[in-house]
Each structure stands twice: as structure tokens, then as C-alpha cells.
Amino acid sequence: MKTGQNKNIKRIHTTKKSIFRYWLEFLKPYHKMRTKEIEVLSLMLYYRYELSREISNPEIIDTILFSTKTRMDIRSELGNMGQRNFNNILTAFRSKGILSKDNKITSVLIPNMSEDGFQLIFDFDIKK
């Protein structure tokens, strides 16, 4: 990454839950998810993050994230989204490569975040 004076820094004050929505909105040109898909995945990422604070094994985190109880909790937070609608979105995630067949979120969409938050840096390489 180039260093220099050409930096624009904007601070975003947010909640821990909302940061995942911002993350996916900023990355929208790369993943091209619809609004409802972003809403679902941002909550899944939040739940995954909360699980990772207590559990260090990613396999166990993914198993719990896709358990019936956690899926019901996520659907509840989405305004009691129906099971069929939720499952259709998960199927769309699989077809787009966002979710693997064995229910793992692609690592490029999981932010590397700490308790203090994280920084998302865009490095624009302008062609001459």
C-alpha cells in the first residue's frame, strides 16, 4: 500500500451489531448482495463474532452458528422472517459462493475485528 498525504479518513460511530452491516455495505461492489441478503448476513456475522469471543475453534463456531436455535434467533431479529424465506436466502448465498455447502461463510466476508473495532482501507490504484 502506498503511503503519502493522499488520505481521507472518516470515523464512523456505530454499535457492534451495526458494524457488520456497514462492512457489507462498503463491500457491496464486490459481493453484489441484495439489501435483504446484506441484512441476513450482517446478523450472521454479528452472531459469529459473538461466538468467536467465547469459542476459539472455528469448526465449533460454524456448527453453533447454523444450529436450529441460532438460526431461529437470527430469524427473530429479522422480524420473525419465515423459515422458507431464510432458507432461500441461505441457498442464494451458496449459489453466490458466500456460503459453502458445509455452511461456512467465505473468509473474505468475515471482518478481522477486535473489541476496539477495525479499519477498512481502500487503496485506489488509478491507472494512467
Name the poorly predicted regions: none
Percent of residues in beta strands: under 5%
| Straight-line N-to-C gap | 18 Å
Cα gyration radius (Å): 16 Å
Mean pLDDT: 90
The number of distinct structural domains comes to 1
The proportion of residues forming helix, as a percent range, comes to 40-55%
The helix count comes to: 6
**Describe the biggest sheet?**
none
The outline comes out as: globular
The topology string of helices and strands comes to HHHHHH
Topology, number of strands: 0
Written overview of the protein:
- The relative contact order is 0.14.
- The protein is mainly alpha-helical and 128 residues long.
- The two termini are 18 Å apart.
- The chain has one domain.
- It contains six helices and no strands.
Properties at a glance:
128 residues, mainly alpha
Topology:
Blueprint (H helix, E strand, L loop, with lengths): L15 H11 L1 H4 L3 H20 L3 H8 L2 H10 L5 H13 L33
Helix pairs in contact: 1-3, 3-4, 3-5
